[in-house]
Amino acid sequence: xxxxxxxxxxxxxxxxxxxxxxxxxxxxxxxxxxMLWSCLIWLGGLSVGSTxxxxxxxVMATGDEAVYGANGSAVVPLTDEIQYGxxxxxxxxxxxxxxxxxxxxxxxxxxxxxxxxxxxxxxxRITNPVYEDGRSYVYGKVNAMHLFRVWKGGQKLHGEKLRxxxxxxxxxxxxxxxLGLLKPVYMEIGYPDIPYDYIATERYDPxxxxxxxxxxxxxxxxxxxxxxxVPGFHxxxxxxxxxxxxxxxxxTLTAGVAVDAFLSPPEIFAASFExxxxxxxxxxxxxxxxxxxxx
Length: 295
Prior knowledge:
Elements: H1 2-6, H2 11-59, E1 80-89, E2 92-102, E3 107-118, E4 125-126, E5 137-138, E6 143-159, E7 168-184, E8 186-191, E9 198-203, E10 214-217, E11 228-242, E12 249-262, E13 279-293
Antiparallel strand pairs: 1-2, 1-13, 2-3, 3-6, 4-5, 6-7, 7-11, 8-9, 8-10, 11-12, 12-13
């Protein structure tokens, strides 16, 4: 090859030089093509690595950006929630149940029900002064009232739990129907006057039953077949604190104020003893357990 490129020869030698040059160029082209593909693959790898790094930085967002998207939707959206527990208020207590549906990451719509024992603020229990084994009773109380509420409500989240031990703060409002369930009070009446010869169970009538012949209140089951219903309206507002340590298992404390208003005053006391009110304003608190999930 050196002899061919270094010495001028005749036409036959020129032909040999041309053939040798074409062979060299072909070999160089064969070497450059693999190098070109290697460069393209290397540049593609840099591009993919840069894109992956940018996406990773997006996932590593902190604060609200780690929970919610730009339109207020949760990154891992919840759709349903249920809670149940006890409700205590300034005039009694009972059970509560609610079922929620997430409208977005910050709002929940609720349907719920409460079944409560209602205690009139004027109630004062006494016993028979002679027969101490008689059950205590409220003198002048002719009906025991229970509240059955069916309500619809909404909840607005003000602070989501961004850490395991954090608390979710929200406001909760409810409105709906209240039914006052009136159950007649039955007493155990002693006959004749003290000392009694026998005891009879009778519906309490303040005009004929007095403290001297009331042995005690009868068992709770008496009067269940004589229930009367007084319809009314319920509204309440509360602050809701959810502090469960697991994302889908909840523990909630709620505190607020409630109003129950009836179309007519429920007769709890006989008219000659106390004036029955049509509306009651109470403070309440609930302790609930529950769960939420994604459908």
